[in-house]
Amino acid sequence: MVASVTRMKDVSVDADLAVRRLVARYSQLVDDRDLDAAVGLFTEEGQVIFSGERHAGPEAIRAWLASTPTPTLHQVTNVVVSNGSHEGTLHAVCDLGLLLGGPDGWKVAAVGRYHDTLAGSGRDLRFTQRIITLR
Question: For the chain, which domains are there?
Answer without folding.
Answer: 13-134 (3.10.450.50)
